[in-house]
Amino acid sequence: MSPAYTELLHRLKEVAALTSTAALLGWDQETMMPAKAGAARAEQLAVVSRLAHERATDPRIEELLGECESNGQLLADARIAANLREIRRDYDRARKLPAEFVGEMQETNSRALEAWKAARRDDDFSAFEPWLARQVTLNRRKAEYFGAPDGGELYDALLDEYEPGMTGKELERIFKPLREALAPLIAETTESPHQPDLAVRRLVVPPEKQKELNAFVVNRVGFDFDSGRIDVSVHPFSTGISPGDTRITTRYGDADFPEALGSTMHEAGHALYEQGLPRVEHWGQPLGESLGLGIHESQSRLWENHVGRSRAFWDWLMPLALRVLGSELDSYSSEDVYAAVNVVRPGLIRVESDEATYSLHVMLRFDLERSMLRGDLSPADLPGAWNERVRADLGLEVPSDAQGCLQDIHWSMGSIGYFPTYTLGSLYAAQFWEALCRDVGGVEDSLRSGDFRPVLTWLREKIHGHGRCYSASELCTSLTGTPLGHEPLLRHLRAKLDPIYRLDGQKTTP
Amino acid sequence: MSPAYTELLHRLKEVAALTSTAALLGWDQETMMPAKAGAARAEQLAVVSRLAHERATDPRIEELLGECESNGQLLADARIAANLREIRRDYDRARKLPAEFVGEMQETNSRALEAWKAARRDDDFSAFEPWLARQVTLNRRKAEYFGAPDGGELYDALLDEYEPGMTGKELERIFKPLREALAPLIAETTESPHQPDLAVRRLVVPPEKQKELNAFVVNRVGFDFDSGRIDVSVHPFSTGISPGDTRITTRYGDADFPEALGSTMHEAGHALYEQGLPRVEHWGQPLGESLGLGIHESQSRLWENHVGRSRAFWDWLMPLALRVLGSELDSYSSEDVYAAVNVVRPGLIRVESDEATYSLHVMLRFDLERSMLRGDLSPADLPGAWNERVRADLGLEVPSDAQGCLQDIHWSMGSIGYFPTYTLGSLYAAQFWEALCRDVGGVEDSLRSGDFRPVLTWLREKIHGHGRCYSASELCTSLTGTPLGHEPLLRHLRAKLDPIYRLDGQKTTP
């Protein structure tokens, strides 16, 4: 092995030790940290993150990279070549932002976050508006530092951070027909006289029992408790801290156990991806890291929606759930729960929305943030534009900005270009699922018998094991035979909803 | 404020952000971390600790310190002067160890720790002996780097790390009469026909109920749950991570709830000290830090033994404990529990020993480690010397090294000079308690009514609030009127044990 490559990997591991430490500080903050430790925690995170950034952008890395990139023997190994390509990508991106600009962004993010919290609480968009304007300006500068790709727009440079290689134009190509097909589907479901009975979701179930059920299920789907844990937090999340350490959280209400289980399945999907990455061998290297957020989200959506909202899954789980949750569940069949967890209910809040309407929430955010970045939409005009779009897409009136354009944290934290990855995740998931069912065969029977290994094995082999060796679009095309499109997701939704709502379904199926 | 002083404090805060992050990594490792994350955690700890050390020994600190030390205006403020004095002490000590020697120690510590674990498990001292020899050698070198104080011995240089200013000679002065007085006291108790009934300690109590009781008690004594938390770990500990973040752990058995409560009171004592330090204003500065380990241990011993093993405490707690733990407790009086938690039972294991015999365990370790450091005792001869001393002091035969000289982790981790601080803690606690009772008055009645504020207020005002402003010996003399001695601890034990065991007590009371 080349000494330059060895030193390079050593330095990346050191950076990973710091970024993973920051991840643990973040996890602890959400799950364990006492209330009064907030100020000290902010300081710890700032110092650790700064040191990680300093070391990731150390000019010595440039030297070592240069040496490796001119070493034919290294490049002859396709995986090493991929590793070097991605290390170069990360390094160049990190170096493009001047340190003082990074500082300005961090400072703005933390202040804008506080302003957003207060504005949402007080339903006062005007208090947040100057911060939003500032975040748009900073994101425009950030995009300029990165530079738009040839023939692209500034928005692409932001997207590239979350979904490498994706562009606004490409999203438009995929999202437009999706939106056009979702609108009639949702209208049909809401107008159908056949509506799922939601009584099972109102069953009161003690959180302790729900926890027991969720732990049982994630263990069964393949989550390794020797390499991770489940806790409770206000906002559920998953974090792949380090090799051997992937943690997820759930929140529990007194009722709606399928909701908490769905959330846990979602986070477990993220976690199964992290646990399946070759992180032990490649800690800190692209080969051991997840691809963009779209692929990450595809893993959560696949387990949440294609597994956890399937009829076969509930056929398997119901007798077991009955044993854990108690006899009140006895009056419901797996078909009842299956229908109840697939209900379509247009609502105002993205994170509470169902599988069918979810993408409409995402696409409106994509269009609005892209317009703001271009300067076509002034931040001051956001509420009006938001409410109009909700009316058009979901048929709802927005009664307050708190339930409208102030509901999400992302823009306050300076994240523009992040939202589309949620729907990309749903699209990848549906397309992967079709390929998986084709490749593996008998998947439904496996799920019905509680055997999730065929699914996980396929994902591990085809996706998890490769780290960042291939791009998301390469992976999609090579696994599914076609570039990412909206049809598989539509087919998936139609295949579920047409029978549940007894729809005709012919006119909009692609 | 002087710009040099401001920058100095800023740099110290940055170091504190890193050391506190390492503390969180350590806490998480003992309480939350998944099993397979060990290797990554070691890497995280190594990197964060190294960066903290690099920044703590940055020559810029020397420059700033120099400027401050020649600034008369700063030195005119006694607290700032004390802060500078202690910053100098820390900096000079840290600079005295060459970086490569620190690396060698860390490497040895982690390997010796693994060797010790295996040796203890296999009861095979010969497997640990070379590591012990190496640790003794390294400690001698470390002491040489630090340098013994004028007229002192190398051991003093090690002690100084844990108990600043303490010397082997001074320990000898205090320990000798203590040991001489404990021997007959313990003999009298074990020979007494009046032995406490230990049935209450065999009561089976579900850990969940014990947790509830312990949380109630520590909250009542003043532990602030908005600045801390209690968890479960294999080895109970307390860690003052950062301002607003002090965490303790307990371990629970199925029986002996007073044991778990005593352990929690002990850790809560440490935590109350940490929570009482002016850490918010002085994070990273000596003014916001605890004095040596002896004073820290005095706080845990005071709450564990002087409060938690007092008759008044159990008079208060019994009716409440009955409510939490259930009616099985009904057949015991507070006097029964009081006697049972003060039982004297010479045993082989330090951490299981009672208040009276505990110091004998400590003093034998002090004598043996000091002899090894001097070269008077070869590590190979440790088991023989150990067993002989246990026979002499505790009247017991050591059946295996696992229950003898291999029982403690300290030497394997390269900690020589640490053990004596346990008994210093007991001695300080007893001496402080006498002063507190004299200053405050009516303490017993307060405890009996469950009012712990007078005790905590005195400790906060006299000890916690001062950080490292005074040395331990200055503090002791100014609060109690006399230098540290063995008499208060002896009086305390006699006052309890003479009535419980119906001893004459006259002949050995000082």
Can you offer a commentary on this structure?
Chain A has 510 residues and is mostly helical. The first copy, chain A, has a domain of 94 residues. Helix content of chain A is 65%, strand content 3%. Chain A contains 22 helices and three strands. In chain A, strands 1-3-2 form a three-stranded mixed sheet. In chain A, helix 12 packs across helix 13. The first copy, chain A, is globular. The model of chain A has no long low-confidence stretch (mean pLDDT 96). Chains A and B meet through helix 1 and helix 2 of A and helix 1, helix 2 and strand 3 of B.
Brief rundown of the structure:
By secondary structure, chain A is mainly α.
- Tell me the quaternary state: homodimer
Integer average pLDDT of chain A: 96
- Uncertain ranges of chain A: none
- Per DSSP, the total helix count of chain A is 22
Biggest interface, residues from each chain:
A-B, 39 and 40 residues
What gyration radius of chain A follows from the Cα positions, in whole Å?
Answer: 23 Å
Distance between the termini of chain A: 52 Å
What structural class is derived from the secondary structure elements of chain A?
A: mainly alpha
Number of strands of chain A: 3
Tell me the strand percentage band of chain A.
Answer: under 5%
The level of helicity of chain A is 55-70%
Backbone shape of chain A: globular
Main pleated sheet of chain A: 3 strands, mixed
Order of strands across the main sheet of chain A: 1-3-2
Order of helices and strands of chain A: HHHHHHHHHHHEEEHHHHHHHHHHH
